[in-house]
Amino acid sequence: MDMTDLRIVEPPGGFPVTKKKGRIDWKNHVFHYSQLASYTKCPWMFKLKYIYGLDEEMKGIGAARGSAIHDSIYKIKQEDLWSSAIDVAIKAYDDEIDDESYNDSKEEKSFEKESKKGRDMCIEVVRNYAIREEKNKNRVMFSEIPFSVLIKGNKFAGKIDEIRDGEDGIELVDFKSDLAVPSLICLMNSLQFMIYGIAMNDGMFFLGEKEFKINSVPSKVVWYHLRHLTAYKRKSYNNGVTFNVGDMKGGGNPEVIVPWDEFEIDRSAEEVRKIIGAIKGNHFYKRPASVGACNGFCYHNETCVSGVTSCDYNVEELLTK
Ligand code: SF4
């Protein structure tokens, strides 16, 4: 497959694993960073998701809110809608939310309450984003730009949230809706940033009919923490500091800078090679509950965690599907 074949066709979460003559076709598989991240959380989860194709959980309000915020930010930048940020956020949220995801009136009530909270937060984040970033709009070079790259002979595709022109060079920005900011050491070992960093240096980018290379490592990698664009709703204490109602979280600064330089490229490629080697080598062990992956948030928890070495899924049956 030519890398240009991957132009804007990447499905969310990456390409499914395909089979050729009953065997998994790793040679032509196109990896996505989320697949590797899933493998590092639990190799067995990777197998259930990407090889057996078992569905993920239904999209909850948190995920719908995150998508709506991402979509709004993209639309505001693409269509220069900075002064209509609130309207953009409301429409994006209402388009995302699934009004039918409850079974009875009790669930409906709680869904409506949570949904309103999600909507309010989406509006607050998008409004504050527009206020903060309109003055920087000319620095944005690309938004949601698709790429493909070969890493140690393995094909990868993905989309970078934002590439912008910074004081010291080109910056890589990723918008995050997570509850908390990971530790710096965790961010420096983020597979997503590793793969995106390699793509900026070696990969092919696609813009409409055009394809081009950037040929530069990011001078700065930014974890853009969207929750820092919201204010405290009640008096809070955090790390010995008191915050009053209306104080912005994280001091109102959403940019968490991840140290980065050209030396990261080799380290990242080696890390990726090791993980893919384990996947291709068929190492799909279950992550022991004691390690923390089976913490109740895994969708497969009930059927899977009950046995340490066995699994309730009929593996043979799944393989023949
Ligand atoms: S329940 Fe635990 S072992 Fe099973 S797939 Fe999820 S994380 Fe892995």
SSE topology sketch:
Blueprint: E1 19-20, E2 23-24, E3 30-31, H1 33-41, H2 43-51, H3 61-79, H4 85-96, H5 105-133, E4 140-151, E5 154-166, E6 169-176, H6 184-188, H7 191-202, E7 204-207, E8 210-212, E9 220-225, E10 236-238, E11 241-243, E12 255-258, H8 264-280, H9 301-304, H10 315-320
Parallel strand pairs: 3-5, 6-9
Antiparallel strand pairs: 1-2, 4-5, 4-7, 5-6, 7-8, 9-12, 10-11
Helix pairs in contact: 1-2, 3-4, 3-5, 4-5, 7-8
Instruction: Estimate what percentage of residues fall within beta strands.
Output: 15-25%
Instruction: Provide a count of the helices.
Output: 10
Which ligands are bound?
iron/sulfur cluster
Q: What sort of overall outline do the alpha carbons produce when their principal axes are compared?
A: globular
Q: Poorly predicted ranges (pLDDT <50, ≥5 residues)?
A: 307-312
**Order of H and E elements:** EEEHHHHHEEEHHEEEEEEHHH
Q: What does the model show?
A:
The strands form three sheets. Strands 3, 4, 5, 6, 7, 8, 9 and 12 form an eight-stranded mixed β-sheet that branches. The chain has ten helices and twelve strands. It is about 40% helix and about 20% strand. It has a domain at about 60-135. The chain is an alpha+beta fold and about 325 residues long. It has helices at about 35-40, 45-50, 60-80, 85-95, 105-135, 185-190, 190-200, 265-280, 300-305, 315-320; strands spanning about 20, 25, 30, 140-150, 155-165, 170-175, 205, 210, 220-225, 235-240, 240-245, 255-260. The site of iron/sulfur cluster (SF4) has 13 residues, from helix 2 and helix 9.
